[in-house]
Design goal:
Elements (H helix, E strand, L loop, with lengths): L1 H4 L6 E5 L8 H13 L4 E4 L21 E4 L4 H5 L4 E6 L3 H9 L4 E3 L6 H11 L3 E3 L10 H13 L1 H19 L4 H13 L1
Parallel strand pairs: 1-2, 1-4, 2-3, 4-5, 5-6
Length: 192
């Protein structure tokens, strides 16, 4: 958190993929080099699992001067920090809700299961994020990552929609309804 405190407002690309996502070395390298290409501060959570047989190595050309790589973060606190500009996420349900509740636009990189459904809602229904496009081999290139980061962060409409979404949710909750009623209203509004 002290590192985030030193970063300008809405400048940091936060990258975290939950506990189940596994990259191969080539994709891990592309992501590392893409973060450098953005020329923006980044906070990247790289899981440090001692039992993990899928250990990744940073490429020798990666310098990481603008970023910080850590093994774990208090994600709710990180996403509520004013320095966070966007969240590169696997679109797990908890991560999605935490990002939306903090008005943080998402760059969607689903890995499995409901994450693909969540990505569709984020990008197509709510329009508070963008998805990466993979190549014919299923890889997401460093150029694609840099392009989408730049595109998302220069799109004021996406950030504005993120803020309006939270305002609408807060308004519904302030009407004095029960939690289940609010949740039902939220899902009705999402699918409406």
């Amino acid at each position: 958190m002290s590192w985030l405190d030193q970063q300008p407002q809405c400048s940091v690309v936060y990258v975290a993929f939950g506990s189940e996502t596994l990259f191969n070395q080539r994709q891990f390298t592309e992501l590392a080099l893409a973060l450098e290409l953005t020329n923006r501060p980044f906070l990247w959570v790289v899981r440090q699992d001692p039992n993990c047989t899928n250990k990744m190595s940073l490429p020798p050309e990666f310098k990481g001067y603008k970023g910080k790589i850590i093994g774990w973060t208090p994600q709710k606190m990180v996403l509520s920090h004013p320095a966070i500009a966007c969240f590169v996420s696997h679109c797990g349900w908890n991560s999605t809700i935490e990002a939306l509740s903090n008005r943080v636009p998402l760059l969607c990189w689903p890995y499995s299961g409901d994450q693909f459904f969540n990505k569709n809602y984020i990008c197509d229904a709510l329009k508070v994020g963008m998805a990466f496009d993979s190549d014919e081999n299923g890889m997401i290139s460093r150029g694609e990552i840099k392009e989408k980061v730049d595109q998302l962060l220069s799109d004021e409409k996406t950030r504005s929609r993120s803020h309006k979404l939270m305002e609408k949710l807060k308004h519904n909750m302030e009407e004095g309804s029960t939690s289940s009623t609010n949740l039902n209203r939220f899902f009705t509004w999402l699918t409406g």
